[in-house]
Design goal:
This protein is an alpha/beta fold and 190 residues long. Helix content is 61%, strand content 13%. It has one domain: 3-Layer(aba) Sandwich (Rossmann fold). The structure holds adenosine monophosphate.
Length: 190
């Protein structure tokens, strides 16, 4: 199985590149942000709890995210592998992911760390906000999401360096250029 963690700040292109990776390698896509937005839309208990965190640009608590992910993973029964988009975002989530995959006889194959300048991130998110209709794509929430990324999520890169899974990807340039760099990295571990 090819299990890819796509990692990077909000606006670094995780969703866009995930779509291309899925097409190229036939992976299942799990985006915790998409799952949470689905729960919010459906008005579930989890959706109601998540809404407050998402609108403040804060992380939803680890225990909720981890049990949600286990359910999604079991319902998908992935064949070729999975791309994890927006998960893990904390060290406990990374450890829980490793345990979940190990229990299913597999592991993370590679972690792609998309690197994009801060000004470009803000620009991209504001542009996306004009069309996404996402309640968290506004300047105030973008700023707290970036702050949360730097303090809580970015340190996770070191965890994957220690695991020998970390690959830094230059996330500046055209979508095709960035995808070319990703393919090179993924083909190395396939
Ligand atoms: P995203 O679509 O990945 O940008 O996620 C949007 C929002 O959903 C984040 O700002 C968090 O509030 C929440 N979220 C998504 N994934 C996670 C996660 N793995 N852990 C905690 N919160 C998450």
């Amino acid at each position: 199985m090819l299990n890819v963690v796509i990692f990077g700040a909000p606006g670094s292109g995780k969703g866009t590149q995930s779509e291309l990776i899925i097409k190229e390698y036939g992976l299942d896509h799990i985006s915790t942000g998409d799952v949470l937005r689905g729960e919010m839309k459906a008005g579930t208990e989890l959706g109601k709890i998540a809404k407050d965190y998402i609108e403040k640009g804060q992380l939803v608590p680890d225990d909720l995210i981890v049990s949600m992910l286990a359910n999604v993973l079991d319902s998908k029964k992935p064949a070729a592998g999975v791309i994890f988009d927006g998960f893990p975002r904390t060290i406990p989530q990374a450890k829980a992911l490793k345990k979940m995959l190990n229990e299913r006889g597999t592991d993370v194959s590679i972690m792609l760390n998309l690197q994009v300048d801060e000004d470009e991130l803000i620009q991209r998110l504001l542009e996306r906000g004009k069309i996404s209709g996402r309640s968290d794509d506004n300047l105030e929430t973008i700023k707290s999401r970036l702050e949360v990324y730097h303090t809580q999520t970015a340190p996770l890169a070191d965890y994957y360096v220690e695991e020998g899974k970390h690959v830094a990807i230059n996330g500046m340039g055209t979508i095709e250029e960035i995808f070319g760099r990703i393919k090179e990295a993924v083909n190395n571990v396939k």
